[in-house]
């Protein structure tokens, strides 16, 4: 049995505190933030009862503060400045956009300089816990634009005084060239893009354990992944893999891995919620009641430190598994399960059955011979049809005939395990889309020419 990883402390006052002390701190900040929002932000004053300004407990907060959701924050920039910017003060230092992947549009969120600093400061925790030191170099593969993911990465490097290599504009081949040239200590990528980088290194015959000797940690976000994928990636890169969960509305990375990483002992790891900065509720989407440890629910977030426009009780639409404060690292933070965050609106209903994309991921990627896939749901001859195109890794050494047989085997396995017929077919290598962030492997062609109503839980 491998030894437990060395615990690395970034903030002893928090990380060594009791659970009760942490919750008391969170409640004080929640009370102060609710009062500030009611008194200084027109958006909330119009929607909240006056009692929201005087809450003293989480139970009171739940009783009086309503939920918000994405449609509440869509609109013109003029509306944003008139309705959502705290007064007095709160001069915006930056504007961040959401990715718009839900199809409802992009939100615009103002940030003060304090907000910007805070959004990057959780990186200090994650980087330290994963093994990085001040001054280590980090490769960021996300493109830097108006969206939070890239903007966060540029500020994060400053907080650790690290040498930040922002590789977003370059091709994958060029990124690999620079990695081999500068040999970073850390690498940030989505799971799908990490697989793509691995494929390039394998084609070149590069062993990262030899050619990337400085690599200590890889940081991932943006999609779920299987334990098989985690095991193969850990073995190939020979570096700690650390995950984070974040969204623009929260203004920071709300949950992060500790030293134990994403798959300690072959099991799912814990993403620790930054509860001193954020209230993270995990609620049953049907009853709005908190779930118990081990149960799944929707993540609802409230920013406790934001100045310009703190988002309060925001329904993320993300399905997570709540774990409570259960990590062997002993920190007091409650957490969610690593690698299984999914969107409720990613669920597809096919032939009367609910299908989650990650259920297909687990089957398709189970043996490591498939690098990427793309699924399409359509209507053919009045019947719902599912087609999956799969790309086999060149290193699998499978002939065309063997790939066809393997695809047929997958068709049978999927039908046996998911009770849905999916026609799996081989595709030419590199013919399918690749993703640097926010993987979207499924296309629902049934929606063509139709209005789509997204699930939004009523308040």
Largest sheet composition: 12 strands, mixed
CATH superfamily of the domain at 347-447: ANL, C-terminal domain
The overall pLDDT average reads 88
Q: What's the quaternary structure here?
A: single chain
| Top-tier CATH class of the domain at 347-447 | Alpha Beta
Query: Strand tally, please?
Result: 20
Judged by helices, strands and strand pairing, the structural class is alpha/beta
* Low-confidence parts: 449-459
Silhouette: globular
Q: Which second-level CATH architecture of the domain at 347-447 applies?
A: 2-Layer Sandwich
Question: Which value, in Å, is the CA radius of gyration?
Answer: 22 Å
User: What is the end-to-end distance?
Assistant: 49 Å
Kindly estimate the percentage of residues that lie in beta strands according to DSSP: 15-25%
- Tally of individual helices: 13
CATH topology value of the domain at 347-447: GMP Synthetase, Chain A, domain 3
Helical percentage:
25-40%
Description:
With 459 residues, this protein is of the alpha/beta class. It has a domain at 347-447: GMP Synthetase, Chain A, domain 3. It is 31% helix and 23% strand. Strands 3, 4, 5, 6, 7, 8, 9, 10, 11, 12, 13 and 14 form a twelve-stranded mixed β-sheet that branches. Strands 19-18-17-20 form a four-stranded mixed β-sheet. Strand 6 (217-220), helix 11 and strand 7 (240-247) form a beta-alpha-beta unit. Helix 6 (113-130) packs across helix 7. The chain is globular and about 70 Å long. Mean pLDDT is 88; it is low at 449-459.
């Amino acid at each position: 049995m491998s030894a437990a990883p060395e615990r690395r402390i970034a903030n002893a006052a928090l990380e060594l505190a009791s659970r009760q002390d942490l919750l008391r701190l969170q409640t004080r900040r929640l009370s102060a933030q609710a009062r500030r929002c009611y008194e200084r932000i027109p958006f909330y004053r119009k929607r909240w009862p006056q009692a929201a300004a005087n809450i003293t407990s989480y139970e009171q907060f739940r009783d009086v503060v309503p939920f918000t959701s994405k449609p509440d924050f869509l609109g013109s920039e003029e509306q944003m400045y008139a309705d959502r910017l705290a007064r007095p003060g709160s001069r915006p230092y930056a504007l961040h956009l959401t990715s718009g992947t839900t199809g409802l549009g992009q939100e615009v969120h103002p940030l003060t300089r304090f907000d910007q600093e805070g959004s990057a400061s959780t990186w200090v925790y994650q980087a330290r816990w994963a093994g990085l030191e001040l001054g280590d170099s980090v490769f960021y593969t996300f493109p830097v634009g108006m969206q939070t993911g890239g903007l966060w990465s540029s500020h994060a490097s400053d907080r650790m005084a690290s040498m930040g290599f922002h590789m977003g504009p370059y091709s994958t081949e060029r990124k690999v060239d620079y990695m081999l040239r500068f040999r970073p200590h850390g690498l940030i990528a989505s799971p799908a893009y990490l697989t793509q980088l691995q494929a390039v290194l394998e084609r070149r015959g590069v062993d990262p354990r030899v050619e990337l000797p400085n690599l200590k940690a890889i940081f991932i976000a943006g999609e779920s992944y299987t334990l098989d994928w985690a095991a193969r990636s850990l073995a190939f890169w020979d570096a700690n893999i650390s995950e984070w969960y974040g969204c623009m509305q929260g203004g920071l990375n709300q949950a992060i891995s500790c030293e134990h990483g994403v798959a300690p002992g072959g099991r799912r790891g814990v993403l620790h919620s930054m509860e001193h900065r954020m209230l993270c509720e995990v609620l049953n989407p049907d009853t709005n009641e908190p779930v118990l440890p081990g149960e799944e629910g929707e993540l609802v977030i409230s920013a406790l430190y934001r100045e310009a426009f703190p988002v309060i009780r925001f329904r993320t639409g993300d399905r997570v598994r709540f774990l409570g404060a259960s990590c062997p690292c002993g920190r007091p933070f409650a957490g969610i399960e690593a690698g299984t965050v999914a969107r409720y609106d990613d669920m597809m209903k096919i032939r009367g059955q609910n299908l989650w994309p990650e259920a297909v991921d687990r089957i398709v990627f189970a043996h490591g011979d498939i690098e990427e896939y793309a699924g399409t749901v359509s209507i053919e001859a009045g019947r719902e049809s599912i087609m999956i195109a799969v790309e086999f890794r060149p290193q699998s050494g499978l002939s065309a005939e063997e790939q066809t047989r393997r695809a047929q085997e997958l068709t049978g396995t999927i039908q046996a395990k998911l009770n849905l017929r999916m026609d799996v077919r081989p595709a030419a290598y590199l013919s399918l889309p690749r993703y640097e962030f926010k993987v979207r492997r499924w296309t629902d062609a049934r929606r063509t020419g139709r209005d789509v109503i997204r699930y939004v839980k009523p308040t």
